[in-house]
Write a structure and sequence with these properties.
Shape: extended
Strand content: under 5%
Number of helices: 18
Mean pLDDT: 86
Number of strands: 0
Length: 454
């Protein structure tokens, strides 16, 4: 339980600090859902029962008094320290013992109490709720009025929570590295297996690097196969981070990256879309050749055709093959129109068929154009991670990616920010894992220093 609570706290703090748009939202069950239907039935039964009690002769106020007591506690929760005058006033007006005494003599001014509550809410609410307060003042039916008061109070509680989040964010941003590292250490103490997936992730990266070195050695006749390869811990980590851009998110992500899983998945989906756009442009340029190379912004025009047709391609229901066929048809039409405007002959049927066929086959595994663009995207991201974290400039954009350069640099900036922050928080944990896997005979202090500072 403690580990679960620490993970929840860590995740929430991370989200508040890194996501400027994070806030509590007013969400409810869909009206036609089972949960939504049950909620409507239960709420209707409660308010109908309250209405029947207030319509008795004499009226039965016990449930209404409990509501006033709950409203009082909510109003008091909105007050800041030192607001003694309004606190005393709320406690005095909504004194439930006094209201019960009045109820015994059928002397409860229920409309007067409701009006006081509304006026007090108007003083305490955010300006965005002013219109809700006006609507409350225009409601005559007391049961409906109480129901709407609770609805607006819920909104005010949400506003208060978001105000607190907004004020807390700068503090969290200043102390987030230490806070997350401490929380994760507490999780690790409660659950010693909390780094198993992370260890496996790093181990796979080491194996990939060893395999790459082995391939290079076998292709170099003069290389000595007997010497033990030297692997950079920084390179191992960076390669591991790169794998996250091609991660199968049906698998569980390493524990140290759970807080950024959604952001990494979104980046991967955006990169997949950009890869297809770059493939489409490269295929078109190579097929049509010099006839369109001088057309101003032609690559951007191809991108504008592709983007809407690739919208939602991360969804399971998305038919990529159908989308590529549609892109191929529109690209051919655009090319022919451009050629005609320049007084050049349109593409013949064979060239059109060839162009559409190449575009349609982009999605196939091991497609040469797709593989080439993918390698260049990976190269750009790898170059980005190799830069010092304080360096603001971008690495040179590889050939074939100029049409998506702006988007690549934006995504690259987000990706590097996630990676650099993750290294700051979890560097000591990674250092310990790398020491065990790479330097089993090296004292811990030396290995951790070498790894954590890179």
């Amino acid at each position: 339980m403690a580990a679960a609570r620490n993970l929840t706290d860590l995740t929430l703090a991370h989200e508040i600090a890194v996501n400027a748009n994070f806030c509590i939202k007013d969400e409810d069950f869909p009206r036609n859902s089972f949960a939504g239907t049950v909620k409507q039935i239960v709420h209707k039964a409660f308010w109908d029962h309250l209405e029947s009690e207030l319509n008795e002769d004499p009226p039965e106020y016990e449930h209404a008094i409990k509501l006033f007591e709950e409203i009082k506690e909510i109003l008091l929760s909105f007050l800041t320290p030192g607001a003694n005058r309004i606190q005393n006033q709320i406690c005095e007006v909504l004194d439930t013992d006094l209201i019960r005494q009045q109820a015994e003599h059928n002397a409860v001014d229920i409309h007067g109490l409701a009006n006081y509550i509304i006026n007090t809410m108007g003083k305490l609410c955010a300006p965005i709720r002013d219109n809700d307060i006006k609507q409350l003042k225009a409601t005559d039916n007391i049961v409906e009025l109480l129901r709407q008061i609770f609805r607006v109070l819920d909104l005010m509680k949400m506003d208060m929570a978001n105000y607190t989040i907004q004020n807390l964010r700068p503090y969290l941003q200043r102390h987030l590295v230490d806070y997350e590292r401490t929380k994760f250490q507490e999780i690790l103490e409660e659950t010693p297996s909390a780094l198993d997936l992370t260890t496996e992730w790093i181990k796979e990266s080491i194996e990939d690097e060893l395999s790459s070195i082995s391939d290079e050695s076998s292709s170099s006749p003069g290389a000595e196969s007997s010497s033990k390869p030297i692997i950079s811990p920084t390179l191992v980590l960076n390669n591991g981070y790169l794998k996250l851009l091609q991660w199968d998110y049906c698998k569980t992500i390493p524990e140290t990256l759970i807080t950024d899983e959604v952001r990494l998945q979104e980046l991967r989906e955006k990169l997949n879309q950009l890869k297809i756009i770059a493939c489409v442009c490269l295929i078109t340029n190579n097929t049509v050749g010099a006839a369109i190379v001088d057309v101003p912004d032609f690559a951007d025009q191809l991108k504008r055709i592709s983007v809407p047709l690739l919208e939602g391609m991360n969804k399971k229901t998305f038919d990529l093959k159908e989308a590529l066929n549609a892109i191929g048809v529109q690209i051919c039409s655009k090319v022919n129109r451009s050629l005609t405007e320049r007084g050049l002959p349109a593409l013949n049927e064979e060239m059109q068929s060839n162009l559409m066929g190449q575009i349609a086959h982009i999605f196939e595994e091991n497609n040469p154009v797709s593989s080439l663009i993918d390698k260049r995207i990976q190269f750009f991201m790898r170059s980005l991670l190799a830069l010092p974290s304080f360096q603001k400039c971008m690495p040179t954009m590889p050939g074939g990616l100029s049409v998506i350069q702006t988007e690549m640099e934006f995504i690259g900036s987000q990706y590097a920010s996630i990676v650099n922050f993750n290294k700051q928080v979890y560097g000591p944990f990674y250092a310990n894992i790398l020491r065990k896997l790479l330097f089993p005979e090296t004292p811990m202090g030396k290995a951790e220093t070498e790894t954590a500072t890179n």
